[in-house]
Amino acid sequence: MASAAEQLAANINFSAIGKSEELKKRILFTLGALIVYRIGTYIPLPGIDPAAFEASFTGKQQGVLELFNMFAGGAVQRMAIFALNIMPYISASIIVQLLSSVVPTLEAIKKEGESGRKILNQYTRYLTVVLAIFQAYGIAIGLEGQQGIVADPGWFFRISTVLSLLGGTMFLMWLGEQITARGIGNGSSLIIFAGIVAAFPSAVISTLELGRQGAISTALILAVIVMSLFVVAFIVLMERAQRRLLITYPKRQVGNRVYEGQTSFLPLKINTAGVIPPIFASSLLLLPTTIASFSAAQGGTGFLATLTTYLGHGRPLYMVVYVALIVFFAFFYTAIVFNPNETADNLKKHGGFLPGIRPGERTAQFIDSVLMKITVIGAAYLALICLLPEILISYAALPFYFGGTSLLIVVSVTMDTVAQVHGHLQAQQYEGLVKKAKLRGRKR
Questions:
Q1: Over the stretch 371-415, which tens digit does the pLDDT of each residue have?
Q2: pTM to 2 decimals?
Q3: CA distance 269 to 262
Q4: Distant-in-sequence, close-in-space partners of 323: CB < 8 Å, separation ≥ 6
Q5: CA-atom Rg of the chain in angstroms
Q6: CA quadruple 384, 388, 390, 395: dihedral, nearest 10
Q7: Max CA distance (Å), the chain
Q8: Helical H segments across 47-186, by residue range
Q9: Is 153 helix (H, G, I), strand (E, B) or coil?
């Protein structure tokens, strides 16, 4: 089965997009919203010296701040009002999603359909505010602890910093919802996508500059380009890969009519967890480095400083723990978001069954067994994609933006957006066929 990208390339051209007024408006709205977002990443927080902070940021290893800076498109390095980006909202969404699978009250709300989804969305917004305030206050304290960055330390600076960063996060959350409703693609994902892509040109230029200076050989640069193409193709293949379980519906009689039995498929994605495992694993691994850097800024050293020497990029312990965390979160998140018992119950209610498998508990056990087997493949795929760039970053001095997490996000968001463009154009083609059929009917 051809992917959405292949269908778009084969059946649609830019003239088709030009003929769709609604799609053009959605694309222009999305581009305009992303431009507003990029402008906000250059507006610094009040009361700080941006040049002094940038010099401090680039002068030492910043751990998890480096990861967040990648997602925020450089806003952390400039300490802009969008420094928190939309990450508190993403974290809140993941937490609410996980809780709705294990807390009975939230699980009941989730099953209420559209009304339940609105309630959970409201809970997500409240949790976003709490997380953003907590993170913004931590940033304010961290900035005050560094010399020459804050002009007038104190509660006024802390409150203004919290309000500025909280306002920036809430604005981006609203902007993401507007893109989803009035634009094209998922708004939150596109905002992160825009931040990562914005840093690609500088990463490529810095890599070429290293090649010009002789720090990296030309052969290695060409090898990285070829490898990147293969990695992107491999990501597309694995993100589209599914294990389809055959579902059979028996014959049924409605009144005097007998309907023949039907067959369909239950698709199980190889990578059900998506990009969540690499993000969680990277954040946990870089957290000691972040705490150690702030501790060093305050004049303290100790166990964390020693630990970070063994958990640095390219270290054997770092690689082992990184892979272990990715595998753990891949299984954990898959087990949380996919409920085999609920799927088996839904099949039983609608009269569907897996050939050779008894409906009910046996079906749930079979689905769970298949899901665990394909998750092994998915976890190995995520570990390989994330580990290979780490080796290049460590031993070839390539920029941080060539990480596996960034490639996964960019490719996944691109595929999702292309699929939505294809869906809009396909709907337009169907509407044209319906209009032609109506005109022919009137002429007759």
A1: 999 999 999 999 888 887 777 666 665 655 556 778 888 888 888
A2: 0.79
A3: 23
A4: 383, 387
A5: 25
A6: 150
A7: 88
A8: 50-58, 64-71, 87-102, 104-110, 114-144, 155-182
A9: coil
